[in-house]
Fold:
Amino acid sequence: MNLIDEIKSRLNNLEPTVLELHDQSDLHKGHAGNTGGGHFQLKIVSSHFSNQSQIVRHRMVYQAIHDLIPHKIHAISILAISPSDPITTMSH
Structure:
């Protein structure tokens, strides 16, 4: 299983209706402090995020992938939204 598939598999416990994960590692080659982990952009829509703050939403995502940081994942940009959030239709 490649890293993208592994991350998506781990996030399935949040029962996402949208799960978009983009590897942006090529944009960050030679980035200072990067010990080899990838750079990712995540958009995830889940009812588990309803009535939760952004901090709690991010914690839920990090809980699923924490052991992949920093060796496999150096950085991840997270847009975690609930289906009822008005920004659901916005692109990230």
